[in-house]
Amino acid sequence: MAYTQRETPVLAELCTFLVEDIYGxxxxxxxxxxxxxxxxTLAAVARASYLSGRQIKYxxxxxxxxxxxxxxxxxxxxxxxxxxxxxxxxxxxxxxxxKLVEDRFGRKAANVMxxxxxxxxxxIADLKEAYFPTATESDDDSDDGTANGxxxxxxxxxxxxxxxxATRKNGVPAELSDAKPDSAVVANGDGMTNGDHKxxxxxxxxxxxxxxxxxxxxGADEITSVDExxxxxxxxxxxxxxxxxxxxxxxxxxxxxDMFQQEAIEQDNxxxxxxxxKDRDLVHRGIIDRKRAMRDEWLKVPRFARTGRPNSSNKRVxxxxxxxxxxxxxPSSDDDLVIRVNPEKIAVAxxxxxxxxxxxxxxxxxxxxxxxxxxxxxxxxIPRCWDEWPEPSLPGGEPGAENGIDPxxxxxxxxxxxxxxxxxxxxxxxxxxxxxxxTRKGHVxxxxxxxxxxxxxxxxxxEKTMVVDKHIQLLSEDPLHFVTWHSRAGFSQWHIEFExxxxxxxxxxxxxxxxSRKGSLGVKLIRTLRKKGKLDERAACNTMxxxxxxxxxxxxxxxxxxxxxxxxxxxxxxxxxxxxxxLVWYDRQRAREKLLHDTYKGMVRILQRIAYERGKVxxxxxxxxxxxxxxxxxxxxxxxxxxxxKKWKEVQEKxxxxxxxxxxLVATLRDFHGPLISV
Amino acid sequence: xxxxxxxPPVLKQExxxxxxxxxxxxxxxxxxxxxxxxxxxxxxxxQRDLSNMQVAETMAELTMILQELCDRxxxxxxxxxxxxxxxxxxxxxxxxxxxxxxxxxxxYHHIDQVQAEGIWSKALRARTNVTQQTLTKxxxxxxxxxxxxxxxxxxxxxxxxxxxxxxxxSEDIAGGPWQSxxxxxxxxxxxxxxxxxxxVENETCIRVxxxxxxxxxxxxxxxxxxxxxxxxxxxxPYRPSRDPNTSxxxxxxxxxxxxxxxxxxxxxxxxxxxxxxxxxxxxxxxLEMMVLDDRLEKISGTNYRTVLRAADTKAYNGFVDAxxxxxxxxxxxxxxxxxxxxxxxxxGQWLETTSEEV
Lengths: 679, 358
Ligand code: SF4
Prior knowledge:
Protein name (chain B): DNA-directed RNA polymerase III subunit RPC6
Bound molecules: iron/sulfur cluster
GO biological process, one term (chain B): transcription by RNA polymerase III
Oligomer: heterodimer
Family (chain B): Belongs to the eukaryotic RPC34/RPC39 RNA polymerase subunit family.
Distance between the termini of chain B: 94 Å
Number of strands of chain B: 12
Helix content of chain B: 40-55%
Distance between the termini of chain A: 22 Å
Subcellular location (chain B): Nucleus
Pfam families (chain B): RNA_pol_Rpc34
């Protein structure tokens, strides 16, 4: 089974919670059946639930629209449904995605992204419709002041409705098609009745989360023309944040594998089931090649037709630098194109943020900004954190890309110097002696003070480049090797070995966890075992330079917590423990999975606590949300009620913030690196 | 190599040479021994080296000579990666060995095999199958003849370990400079690692005061570009502190990175460890331990530097900073029931809210 499709009961629980929170009870009930029973047909789902066939279909349509469920396609005699765990989990990231996009492309792009998240996969025409409704608006009830509550919920519902046609065309199996016309009813209706609080959860903490901006938002951030909207969509697709949707994205990894295997056998192996090693290798290669081709297809940038502004694409080409996308505006009917958020890119951006944070802790604010600049420059060329289907190494043993790195993955000190804002004090965090060496003005006093202070904003570009290079050197010298030297182009040219860094990030999180629970001694033990492999007590003592009595306790504790493994190797026939060799070791993949699993569970507990806390204040919340109370709170709510609400807001915020931080941990543990080979 | 058949007379002559009676003509065996003795002490000889000495005329003869020298305990036969090789013994030692009883010789052989690691008397008995009495008697005799020594193991304080007299007991049984009476000397290790941490910090870090580059102040003194200072600070998104009383520890630019060898030299020259000499290996052990302790970090190969943290945050990660991450009943906690998120006291404390009573 594909790595990303491995699930645990805890993850199932977590995802069911998330689905219920955002998509309502009906969707969640269908979802939970699939979560519990695995791959099912429509009929089997019906047997396992007390829902009517119609309800189940509505539920499934919502889930399919949001890509929370795979289906096996229309060709097979029976259609199977199966949960997409990766996408289901991604619900928790909605708020983060908006923030990430805003930081990079501004608020307007963030707004587009937010709507895409809320709508699921969307026909461009429908998105356009949402921004620039054609004349008669029947569903304009979302404009009112219901900040982030019901309003946005309805918005989502509208989306589903508007998308009707596109959805049917795109992947909803025929057997569900009759559920379509009423989907709006479902969405507005029973599915959503519970809890107006729900969307606010996605909003809650983060800066400006999902459905917060109503589509017709007014003000400076408003998207004013269709072309502008197209430009934004195009930009997001080109940078890999949004991808086009086609049938293959509905297939579960298992089905997809079967299909490509079939194809590879037929086309590459003359239809014969492969027997020999060579044939099997050939077919394997054929499968992987096809998967890669398919995946690359999703990220292809379609050509957009314009209504006006013939020069728009030229401008963009300039903006993107040498991104090789020609300024061709050959008209095509892109309105029918269906797009959605590309979850792999989100992980890449989250990695960037976490790396910057890590550097800030280790090397300081400014070096972190330099690293951020480097990472963001590379980001648009990095479609994903790790490749599930890497090119198999050639049988000849020739390593794939031995000579050199794709220039897209290189960045120079000069690039960074040019990009960096002039307002930054780029000397910060550097040894004054390094500064003087570059500026050649004055000298450094014995007190480490410059004899001639220098305004960093007045450096020439060359000097600035050299200063930047000094920061980059700090990055490269760090034991984590945040960057790796490549050549002297642009003063100094660098690439980033994400693989190695990601491994180290996982290790750091394991160590952080142990550090918080067991202090530095636990960390010391883990590091010892990581460095030395399997050790008996004596060797461990020697490396840690401690007596056996001092480490026995921590070995025990960490064994119980599942971070350390022990093994007894008998040396005598009678297997007396006294005579056996007792080995201790640390398996980072196991530790990683254990921590990931526990983190999922921690997230479930937080969601449960939120539900509980909310339950306690439910009556007050309901009162505060009554239409006659909204806006006149002071008049209708007692002091006690106001305080209760305030406290609830704080509690919710604290819990959500923690939830999102746990999600950061999940990203580090799960998304930045493929499975690690166990020791 | 000569292929002639070994002439029998030579053999005869050699046998004669074995006799202690002084012969004018030096025997081939002694000739070979003398030649070997010219090499530095403890040299290991391979067959190639010995035949190159051209004492024996044929391989067969060489074999005979070597056999003889081994019998006389002047050579010790060993193997290295499956090839035989030899080491020289002093004539005095050989003499002593010749006079041993068979039991003593057997014990000596086993003690010789373990080299610097030493062997516990009980293990020795198990391997040789001699009676306890014989063992005691023979070991005493070997010790009195200055052939073996006994050392108390630091690892197992009640075990007497035997090893050859001229060897230095390995760290496993005698302990290095960081051990005393068989255990790591925690107080000593703490003191010394503190001193070394400071030393490494001096070598690899620089303390920079907040006002190291106070260009705004300098500008102000000139009274010329007053306009600039009004603009500049306003737009700066982040301004490091200019306060001369604050300071930051930074990585030094192009430092001489300390290595195990350089730190060992430094420590020995300071004579902080009275009477103890710290070898490079000992220092490496200590420095590596300090890396595990997160006090030092290793930079490429053999260089060490101080671990710096720019930000002093107490945050670990999202999971352990929440109550569940450190919860003692995490594994018992369920979706419902007595231990659950609803009834959780830890969440209650953390959020300052009430939980459901059970
Ligand atoms: S909810 Fe409370 S009891 Fe349960 S694991 Fe979390 S902290 Fe522990």
